[in-house]
Amino acid sequence: MENAEAGPAASKIKVEVAYARPDVQVIIPLEVAAGATLEDAIRASAISDRFPEIDMATNRVAVFGKLGKLDQALRAGDRVEILRPLIADPKQTRKRRAEQGAQSSAD
Fold first, then answer.
1. Fold topology of 9-106
2. Which DSSP string corresponds to 26-61?
3. I need a labelling partner for 96 at 20 to 30 A (CA). Which of 46, 66, 70, 88 fits?
4. What strands, in cross-sheet order, belong to the sheet with 12-20?
5. CB-based contact 69:56 (threshold 8 Å)
6. Which helix (H) or strand (E) holds 101?
7. What is the distance between the alpha carbons of residues 29 and 47, in angstroms, rounded to a whole number?
8. Which uninterrupted H or E stretch holds 78?
């Protein structure tokens, strides 16, 4: 009995590349070679043509929200996420909100 997954289709996996800004979000489904890396998928998606602000030297990447590295191998079904730089330190923002809340309740 032959393996149904043998042949050229078996060497491809389906993944997604995602990028979001406050005004728009994009998820690009694609097929890449088995063993492809996050960087391979990002390049294959051509997402930087649509969003020229993406700079792989500075943008961080993740797979389903977990930080990853550009040379990390993908698995079938993975969603590669290109993360935007933070504009504010989340710890400082929470601290500032807590201080403002304490001042409001003291009044």
1. Ubiquitin-like (UB roll) (3.10.20)
2. EEEEEEEETT-BHHHHHHHHTHHHH-TT--TTT-EE
3. 66
4. 25-33, 12-20, 79-83, 60-63, 66-68
5. no
6. helix 90-106
7. 11
8. none
